[in-house]
Design goal:
This protein has 397 residues and is mainly α. It contains 18 helices and four strands. α9 packs antiparallel against α14, α9 runs antiparallel to α15 and α13 packs parallel to α17.
């Protein structure tokens, strides 16, 4: 078995495609993609924030003060509008970024004018800063009018606050920063780890089963004095090693890039969050991924052995991605927690446990159910793989 394992491992390390999925993808490519997306997203938002917005006004005679403040603002540029113009079409044709319609009851005294409703025509399907910028000017005028009205009514500060907010809810969040961030991003991490673990196993599994058939080397291997179940175990260990290595590299890359980003970009919040995740938590994540990698290895090798060619094996393995994604999506659903029956559902329980470890709320007793159920599935899948490899009608289809 070990002889087969070492032979397959040497061939695995010579395969550049496998090394790319195992090492380069989690260490360099994924962080690079995330970094590029973050950079261009930030740049796009910055460009939108600095863009001068064009506007038109209807009913300017009712609010000379507001119109003059808009004209004085550097981030706005007025575009004259003809009478009886279709305002929606005017904005749709991009003649202006927005049109502000001022009603005839506009005034400084809300006690006599009542509530003033300004109509804003804009294309809100686009990312824009219209409402935010406009609110900065209008809110200031509204607050001034409001304050003047309160003074006219001779209301004290306490009465003014009570009228503005008769009842308020003062939220006291008992969750710490780690739990808050863990709840938000903890569901995405298992998705990436599982997919990378599967990708890391898929290429060697294809090569060690269907690849051997296609090259005509399987027959040579079968007439060797090595027992058939040891051949399967050697191949299984090679594929599982690739998957575990991929998982280990992913978890290590996640930890290192988190620390580097937080230190390099001086993001104290990220540094505190990464610092709160202990080495034990990362170790437990890795340990839980070992039976997961074993399940992937056994199932992928069974499919590869059954396939007649490399191409056919890839066709069988591609739907495996869906079988991996569904349990992770279940772990993201509201109300699904690592307790009761969910702790025994393979893959979903590991995804939930990784999320809990990141949040810092892990119930370590559940590790018995997690490791027990995933290890049982892995052993059953490996048993089937050994049985499958012993069938002549499967090997020589």
């Amino acid at each position: 078995m070990w002889l087969v394992f070492l032979k397959e491992l040497k061939e695995l390390l010579r395969d550049r495609k496998t090394m790319f999925f195992m090492i380069a993808l989690p260490i360099i490519v994924f962080p690079l993609i995330i970094g590029v997306v973050t950079y261009f997203s930030g740049k796009a938002i910055k460009d939108i924030e600095s863009k001068v917005l064009t506007y038109s006004v209807v009913g300017e005679e009712f609010a000379p003060n507001l119109v003059s403040q808009l004209a004085a603002a550097k981030e706005f540029q007025r575009v004259d509008l003809k009478e009886e113009t279709d305002l929606s079409q005017w904005v749709q044709n991009e003649n202006a970024d927005f049109v502000l319609v001022i009603p005839d009851n506009y005034g400084d005294n809300p006690l006599t004018n009542g509530q003033v409703v300004l109509q804003l025509y804009l294309n809100d399907a686009k990312l824009n800063m219209v409402e935010k910028r406009l609110s900065q000017i209008i809110d200031e005028i509204a607050l001034s009018n409001q304050s003047a009205a309160f003074t006219q009514l001779s209301l004290t500060d306490v009465q003014q606050k009570a009228l503005l907010d008769p009842i308020i809810i003062n939220k006291v969040d008992v969750a710490d920063q780690r739990e808050n961030w863990g709840a938000k991003i903890g569901g995405i991490i298992p998705y990436l780890v599982f997919i990378l673990c599967l990708q890391g196993s898929m290429i060697p599994a294809t090569d060690l089963g269907a690849g051997e058939k296609e090259r005509g080397t399987l027959e040579t291997l079968l007439i060797s004095p090595i027992e058939r179940h040891k051949l399967v175990l050697g191949k299984f260990l090679t594929i599982a090693f690739a998957g575990v290595t991929s998982a280990l590299v992913t978890v290590a890359s996640m930890a290192v890039w988190g620390i580097v980003l937080s230190q390099g970009m001086a993001i104290a919040m990220v540094a505190d969050f990464m610092g709160a995740i202990s080495l034990l938590d990362f170790l437990l994540m890795f340990l839980m991924l070992i039976p997961v990698a074993a399940i992937f290895a056994a199932v992928l090798l069974s499919l590869s052995i059954y396939a007649r060619s490399f191409k056919e094996a890839q066709g069988y393995m591609t739907p495996m991605v869906m079988f991996v994604i569904v349990p992770v999506i279940l772990a993201m659903l509201p109300g699904v927690e690592l307790k009761g029956g969910w702790a025994w559902v393979p893959l979903t329980n590991v995804a939930l446990a990784i999320k809990e470890l990141i949040k810092g709320t892990m119930d370590y007793v559940q590790l018995v159910a997690i490791l027990g159920s995933t290890a049982a599935i892995a052993i059953a899948a490996l048993g089937f793989c050994v049985y499958w490899f012993d069938k002549e009608k499967v090997l020589f289809r």
